[in-house]
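WARN  no MSA supplied for this record, continuing single-sequence
INFO  ligand: 3,4-dihydroxybenzoic acid
INFO  echoing inputs
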Amino acid sequence: MSQTTDLRAQVAIIGAGPAGLLLSQLLHVAGVDSVVLEQRDQAYVEARIRAGILEQTTVDLLRRAGVDARMNAQGLPHDGFSLAVDGETFRIDLRDLTGGSSVMVYGQTEVTKDLIAACKARGTPLIFEAADVTLHDLEGASPYVTFTKDGEARRLDCDFIAGCDGYHGVSRASIPEDRRRTFDRAYPFGWLGILADVPPCEAELIYARHENGFALASMRSPTRSRYYIQCDMGLRLEDWPDDRIWDELAVRLGPAAAHGITRGPSIEKSVAPLRSFVCEPMRFGRLFLAGDACHIVPPTGAKGLNLAASDVRFLADALILFYGRSDEAGLEAYSSRALARVWKAERFSWWFTGLTHRFPETDSFTRRIQRAELDYIRGSRAAQTALAENYVGLPIQ
Ligand code: FAD
Ligand code: DHB
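INFO  complex generated
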């Protein structure tokens, strides 16, 4: 295979998930050019069912990037959600508790489709099915990326590389082990998710704590519902036909929600593991990590996608400062600035998971303490405010 120096960009972006695509868009708006390399094909990337809740800060960022038309038309603003504790429900009024903030229900699949369409419309090279992506000379002034496309060896020269290739990507692994530190927690359960073309059981989301385990009622639109139940990681999907899931949701979400559930055939069903993970620092030479490439949160509280967005905002601002004024201060500060927000979201997601899930090793005392904390939240505006301000997203600082 011959190797041709055929591509050049200011920023090489690895991964066409929300982090990579949004970074490319924000850079484009500021006149900085990029090339995006993605190992999967477009249909796969667009069909991957994942997160569904956008923080106010993520909504604002998509607006700044000019990729908000469909979100404005089809997204569902939510001013609150409910907590169900052993079948009894109370509401967290996000707007009231945070002085006006809310969240937006708009699926990650839709965000991804909008960003891919914008990327193609502006003519940024977005190369799907890029195989064997390898990063080179990260500590030098002229890093580059090699990959193969349709069996042909290719090379992409750049000033900087943004590693936006998710938890299993190549970017984090390209940093020598003695130059990074990782923090990790695996949870002894997963989430069994089901997507169905039925109306949601309630107008807002319900997070449920129940003796049988956690459950979540969410949605993608007024006619498409997304539900989750806590499950064992060893679960076999064939043991969980749709009716068994609907039955279990009705028990865990409680009688009021159960009454509102419309059953229907699942159009997607999958198990996701729960993990907390952080890699520090988020920079190695001219490589900058963003999103799941350097941190993972358990999904409780819907922080994963939103953290990817805030990383990318910090990184875009730093790169724009560098190209606009030859000022490296933003790049120097990127890792510590992003990590400060990452760790707060790690803490919140870990806490919200502990508050609502059944841990196999927990004794009856700890179960009572969990219920007492939920009871305290129910009765305390101060506790509700702490939950609400984390849920809508902490300020970008
Ligand atoms: P990703 O979306 O993972 O994108 C990374 C991209 O890089 C992918 O397209 C991948 O194909 C590509 N890539 C990987 N390796 C390479 C390589 N070597 N070369 C080139 N490209 C590469 N968050 C929530 O808030 N709520 C949820 O309900 C939720 N559910 C989830 C379910 C699952 C199964 C998973 C995995 C995650 C879920 N998340 C959820 C988390 C959320 O989806 C992520 O935080 C978000 O996708 C992060 O975006 P990203 O762009 O950083 O990474
Ligand atoms: C969804 C996922 C979450 O993790 C969450 O906290 C809320 C909603 C969802 O997929 O709709």
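The chain has a mean pLDDT of 96.
INFO  checksum written, moving to next record
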